[in-house]
Amino acid sequence: MPSALPDGEPMPEDGALPASALVGAGERPLGFYLHVPYCATRCGYCDFNTYTATELRGSGGVLASRDNYADTLVDEVRLARKVLGDDPRPVRTVFVGGGTPTLLAADDLVRMLAAVRDEFGLADDAEITTEANPESVDPAYLSALREGGFNRVSFGMQSAKQHVLKILDRTHTPGRPEACVAEARAAGFEHVNLDLIYGTPGETDDDWRASLDAAIGAGPDHVSAYALIVEEGTQLARRIRRGEVPMTDDDVHADRYLIAEERLSGAGFHWYEVSNWATSEAGRCLHNELYWRGADWWGAGPGAHSHVGGVRWWNVKHPGAYAAALAGGRSPGAGREVLSDEDRRVERVLLELRLLEGCPLSLLKEAGLAASRRALADGLLDPGPYAEGRAVLTLRGRLLADAVVRDLVD
């Protein structure tokens, strides 16, 4: 979750939504994102809304303490119940992210999940995920999460090579993420994800192959592989600007993506979103699919974003300000925007085109349709689905996904 917040209109103190937001809600799945903004150290590439103990000291008082954070977040879940009123939908997905959620006690994460269950109910097949730093969990912790209702866990692996982890300022040791997969399986987790990053300065093709092979060998049923984005204001951006480490170019990113597709597909993984592969449909991350398909979700926590029925809003960033708002009986929302029909159309194209199923050609305007025909001729869109009215990226199209999307929405 990026640290910068957009502009928007003020959020009502009680968090009330326009009546239009819940029209047709019963036809849309509902998810919860629970943000834990704490990290033991800040990774050099990270631009997320996270805080170390040093960064919080003296700036938020006791309200910003992670010791009572679960209680504060539960207060926002209860606020969500008031705002959404008699919305009868059980929650389809819960995703606990950060930061490092597993810096909190396992009982805290379970208590946060219990608040969602008690206030809204969970669907019988609800997907319940937490992110985890490999060094912040052990078998007992993972067992406590599984017993508390979590059924999916996502470990930040990033790389199997020590020198790459060092550039990223990652604190775990090579081999620990793979061990975590085995521990999660032993605890009863059916679905396990490993997150990888490619294109780190100093990484070679062979380094990347070794990371993929290590991840595959660990036995997860889902792998996410993201190109490194160097965000302004991060430690890594400053190091590159000073010439301490080289910037990786787009051609290298493309080569690494092709290596990922080759290795992962050869091991029985299938892409279903440009940066995500799963061994089966059941292994897909349903929570992320809510985002990609424009469903409804409530984001609880500092800086968290929410979307319900075409209304998007975001919370204040700082944990102290967030806790103070809830303690004062106010919504922690910092601002919101009501999306127009055109906004929603454009977002559907932006997000759905990245999916295996693609997006309907009916979403495109005349200029976008003309661009889609050019993309088809250039081998960027699959002719089979196109003939049936859908724009689906080919492998080459996935390499140029951002450019294809821009053409189709302009």
Automatic annotation (TrEMBL):
Where is this protein found? Answer: Cytoplasm
The answer, when asked if 4Fe-4S is one of the entry's keywords, is yes
Predominant location: cytoplasm
Taking every annotated instance into account, which residue ranges of this chain make up the domain Radical SAM core? 24-267
Q: Which InterPro entries match?
A: Coproporphyrinogen-III_oxidase, Elp3/MiaA/NifB-like_rSAM, HemW-like, rSAM, rSAM_horseshoe, rSAM_sf
Q: Which UniProt keywords apply?
A: 4Fe-4S, Chaperone, Cytoplasm, Heme, Iron, Iron-sulfur, Metal-binding, S-adenosyl-L-methionine
- Keyword hit for Iron-sulfur: yes
- Functional note: Probably acts as a heme chaperone, transferring heme to an unknown acceptor. Binds one molecule of heme per monomer, possibly covalently. Binds 1 [4Fe-4S] cluster. The cluster is coordinated with 3 cysteines and an exchangeable S-adenosyl-L-methionine.
Family named by the database record = Belongs to the anaerobic coproporphyrinogen-III oxidase family. HemW subfamily.
> PANTHER family, per this entry?
COPROPORPHYRINIGEN III OXIDASE, RADICAL S-ADENOSYL METHIONINE DOMAIN-CONTAINING PROTEIN 1, MITOCHONDRIAL
This one is known as: Heme chaperone HemW
